[in-house]
Specification:
Aspartate Aminotransferase, domain 2, binds pyridoxal-5'-phosphate, single chain, 17 helices, Aspartate Aminotransferase, domain 1, four-stranded mixed sheet, 13 strands, about 475 residues, globular, alpha/beta
Length: about 475
């Protein structure tokens, strides 16, 4: 059912204006200009590699992976024009013209007074929270991304998630499952006192909630509440372009608007943004913090100089700033976004037809397999998501990330409990794989799905005290 609804959302609005969607083939709106070889391996080789790294896909050498769906962060392909811009980079320590070009490109979409470059999104978070928050404060969001939450908690403040109820149910169908519960926001601010809420945030798209979009109407309402209390409203904007595309095809008010108009309207309701340029801005590295408040910007810049670098480069090379200036404009191309969202949904719909249980509706940057539902014979404490990750690697050299009990099950007292869900995330790097590559992924998953009853659970033989998913070691349970 979810997939039918998705098809409806995409097809009805697209067919009037975009011809290529009436064809089954996904049209990649680019030609390949420079190629990177993929090393093919045999199943026997992969069984050996994965055993050598104790069944943890994070420890695999990337050269031993055929299709890498571990993350969409910094893994996209830069364009010809971005590579050309790299040559234009000016590496002056202070006042580089590359910074002026970067700032102008960012402000052409996001009209904020202060644009502060950083080496990644989490660095923007750290300098913002380090200067704006104090112990005991509260920051409300739809769902805080893990680095956002960690940086808020690092300064002793509380990160609270207030996504709508549908956003917590993997099978609930809602066009904007990333929306914030505005009634809950208002009562939460009243409960803790607005003087203890230095910032309200919203993440678009809602990455930790399955890449689900947020409507402009919701952004508007959240902004109204925050502003009624005089609290600055900050958007975690990593997937601003994908979110705007969902707005165009799902939010009646915006069906005739351009992506650029939607972006500008969305951000007009906020007082600033944090950005990981490794996502929609098409960078392999980079980020920024944008703010209107002189006071917040001053505090953030002082920390920036301490930990990142001078305010005209912020931990990036001049050439990186130039590549981002081009990438941020390419991200809002409607042909690109058609291709981006259709190709993600193409993978989801094909897996749905095979009967693979999935989180629905499909988000923008990834498809999530419900491993607990697919492998009901493997209990959560035997890590069905990890078992599936290992099986996809052995079967076809596909690398994907477990988002479940391995990642979230570890308790502070050393015990463990089942996470809310056991998912396997197939994240799609931007402009990197073709439809043939995705067809291969579908075939591999179909083969694993057909023999799913043979998959075995795992046990952990080594785990560090925190963030165990990166380095844990596993064995099969006999
Ligand atoms: C990736 C991401 C971040 C952190 O950005 P990095 O560049 O990885 O430091 C923050 N928020 C969201 C929603 C993200 O997806």
């Amino acid at each position: 059912m979810g997939s039918a609804v998705n098809k409806y959302w995409i097809a009805t609005r697209w067919q009037d204006s975009i011809v290529c969607v009436t064809y089954k083939t996904i049209f990649e709106p680019f030609r390949i200009h420079s190629v990177e070889p993929i090393r093919l391996t045999t199943k026997e080789e992969r069984q050996r590699y994965i055993k050598e790294v104790r069944l943890n896909v994070f420890s695999l050498a990337a050269k031993d992976v055929i299709i890498d769906l571990l993350t969409d962060s910094g893994t996209g392909a830069m364009s010809r024009d971005q590579w050309a811009a790299i040559q234009h980079g000016d590496e002056s320590y202070a006042g580089s013209p590359s910074f002026a070009i970067f700032k102008e490109a960012v402000q052409s979409l996001f009209d904020y007074k202060h644009i502060i470059p950083t080496h990644q999104g989490r660095a923007a978070e750290k300098i913002l929270f380090g200067s704006a928050l104090k112990t005991g404060d509260y920051v409300f969001s739809n769902t805080h991304f893990d680095t956002t939450r960690a940086n808020i908690e690092y300064v002793g403040a509380n990160a609270v998630d207030l996504v709508i109820a549908e956003g917590r149910d993997p099978s609930a169908i809602h066009p904007f499952k990333g929306n914030m519960d505005v009634a809950a926001l208002r009562s939460a601010i009243e409960e803790v006192g607005p003087e203890n809420v230095p910032l309200v945030m919203i993440t678009i798209t809602n990455n930790s909630g399955g890449g689900q979009p947020v409507s402009v109407a919701n952004v508007r309402e959240v902004s109204k509440i925050a502003r009624s209390y005089g609290i600055p409203f900050i958007i975690d904007a990593c997937r601003f372009a994908e979110n705007s595309y969902f707005v165009k095809i799902r939010e009646e008010e915006f069906k005739e608007a351009s992506i650029e108009e939607i972006v500008k309207e969305t951000f007009s309701y906020a007082d600033g943004m944090t950005m990981s340029a490794k996502k929609d801005p098409m960078g392999n590295i980079g980020g920024w913090l944008a703010l209107n408040s002189d006071k917040l910007a001053d505090g953030a810049r002082n920390l920036l100089i301490l930990t990142e670098g001078f305010p005209t480069y912020g931990g990036l090379a001049g050439r990186d700033l130039e590549a981002l200036a081009v990438g941020v404009r390419e991200a809002i191309s409607e042909d690109y976004l058609n291709y981006r969202i259709t190709s993600t949904h193409y993978l989801g719909e094909a897996l749905d037809e095979i009967g693979v249980p999935l989180v629905k509706p499909f988000g923008g940057h990834a498809i999530y397999i419900d491993a607990r539902a697919m492998l009901p014979h493997i209990p959560p404490l035997q890590y069905p998501g990890q078992a599936l990750a290992v099986a996809l690697y052995e079967e076809g050299g596909i690398r994907a990330s477990e988002i479940g009990t391995v990642m979230f099950g570890q308790q502070a007292d050393g015990s463990e409990k089942a996470a809310a869900m056991d998912l396997l995330r197939l994240a799609i790097p931007r402009r990197t794989y073709t439809q043939s590559h995705i067809d291969y992924v579908i075939e591999v998953i179909a083969n694993v799905h057909a023999r799913r009853e043979e998959l075995r659970g795992l046990k952990i033989t080594y785990a560090p005290p925190q963030l165990r998913h990166f380095t844990a070691e596993f064995e099969w349970i006999e």
